Amino acid sequence: MSKRITIKDIAKMSGVGVGTVSRVLNGGSVKPETRKVVMNAIKKLGYTPNVSARRLAGGKTMSILVLTPEIRTEFHWRLLESIDKTLDALDYQTVIYPVISQNRYNRLFNSNLFYEFDGVILCTLTYKKMFKKTPDFPVLILEDCEDKHDCVFLDNYYGGVLAAETLLERNIRNLYALYYDETSPLLSNENIIKRLEGFKDRLKEEDISFETDQLINADFFYGRPHERIIQILKTVERPGIFATTDNFAMNVLETAATLGKVPGKDFFIVGYDNQTWTERLELTTIKQPIEEMGEMASKLIVERIKNPELPVRHVKFQPSILRRKSA
Amino acid sequence: MSKRITIKDIAKMSGVGVGTVSRVLNGGSVKPETRKVVMNAIKKLGYTPNVSARRLAGGKTMSILVLTPEIRTEFHWRLLESIDKTLDALDYQTVIYPVISQNRYNRLFNSNLFYEFDGVILCTLTYKKMFKKTPDFPVLILEDCEDKHDCVFLDNYYGGVLAAETLLERNIRNLYALYYDETSPLLSNENIIKRLEGFKDRLKEEDISFETDQLINADFFYGRPHERIIQILKTVERPGIFATTDNFAMNVLETAATLGKVPGKDFFIVGYDNQTWTERLELTTIKQPIEEMGEMASKLIVERIKNPELPVRHVKFQPSILRRKSA
DNA sequence: CTGAAAGCGCTTACAG
DNA sequence: CTGAAAGCGCTTACAG
């Protein structure tokens, strides 16, 4: 809209051809002195390349599309921040496309959007629900796993194991688990299922039975104390609860506080996610290396872009337990 | 990445020049029959224009940048959905840029991004905190107000008035209000302040005093029942609470349920936002015409783009009260 | 109403 | 190491 500074302005000011400017921009071989002159001109004029022209010229677009269903949960914004920062350091621009509805999903697939980027990071979306056929562009899958693509994910199963061990060490035997059973067209609750499996398997190893009635569906948790939880807190002795998400744990903590029950004394609870508020409320929870995962994802997709022939890599991160007062 | 279909392919298939194809695409004058032939070719080949080329060619980019701090609260996704849908119908592409951090904010302003769009919608972000100087491109402000730009916003003051009236009609005199006092670099809580003002002014009209201790800062609400709320619910007779956000109301409802207090009988509460869950919990709340606002915003920005000389327009929407059992 | 051509800002062989 | 030139896919006056 206002007159933009182009590569030509830089070339003129530096007394070189546009090709040379382009080369310093893209890391071609340029005499160090020339590079310096050009860099100065760029800085002085505050030049930034026109992404559209770049795309069109068929070079790299130096930008990566991140598909995410969410941006504001702590998990997501930390992940996105980390991706953003890492990619920026690698000279890539991060464009976030929020897949918040079927509509947005459709528009994405009816557009050319994918081809305007060097690669795509699938953040927290289920691969199979997103892509009906294998995409012909680089895709990095974050928090899901698929043979044909690079993946970065957390060992959710192990997170469940950790939760079980933490409660067992406290010699707690009246165990419960909170999960939810949502079916969404784009998301799956597979991660939560895995946490649960890890939890149950670890109990099985100790010959501790875990029956259906110990598994509590928490899908109607919002805005209402859970009657089952009230009952458990009131009647069960030293109950131990594995909340497969900190959100569920928060609800339990609220209810318990209102009932005057003290976590770590009257009942025990382990959350999952290490959300910010958990420290203040002293919730024992499973921690994920969020920033490291975002960084790894960013690096892998860039490597893939630069070298499509690379073998497929799957990187699994291990969660850890953050012991606080609640268990 | 895969071979893309271009305007040339369409031209060849239709037996016309690329200019003509471009004209049918952009609504230039084309003979109806020619148009039909071209449209058929487009459909058959599944052609969609290359946005980058379009931008570069200096025509309209037919895409609008939406800046938002959030995508997943009900309010935001409904707003974004509505914008997306409306703009799509007007042949515009919606690109959402999540401003989730100072980092993302900086990158936005250090890039050319603004100039790759026909216009910008500022969704729920404080204008003055976003722009230090008046932007030289079309900006539509949603949920804030500024003289120089088109704005679409809700009459939050009136929302507060409605809340007061609803409680007064029930002849409730022990009144409280829940608000929060957050200072964020990009957001402001001005809307909540206005709701509160409307509430208090309406009380003043009835000569009902409202003291500082009736105003409850709810910023530490998450994960913990609010002691003040417990006290009020336990000791005050027929208390009436205005929750300036449904989220706060949810917290109160939870606490009350645990205490065995019945909304609409033991206490009264009015929320704000009409979030999905409020219906199920029968919360009386203030409703905003979200879809209408998104639609209006989209239409105004497009009109502005097409005619920059248009006088500035400010559109104020009125909230309404949704009476349910809680008040 | 329509075709041919210039130009948008960049990248990348191609020569040198 | 570097300049000149072609080309990316489109739009838009310019002729006709």
From TrEMBL, chains A, B:
Protein name: LacI family transcriptional regulator
UniProt keywords, alphabetically: DNA-binding, Transcription, Transcription regulation
Keyword Transcription regulation: yes
Organism: Kosmotoga pacifica
Domain of life (superkingdom): Bacteria
InterPro entries associated with the record: HTH_LacI (IPR000843), LacI/GalR-like_sensor (IPR046335), Lambda_DNA-bd_dom_sf (IPR010982), Peripla_BP_I (IPR028082)
Any one Gene Ontology molecular-function term assigned to this protein's record: transcription cis-regulatory region binding
Stretches assigned to the HTH lacI-type domain: 5-58
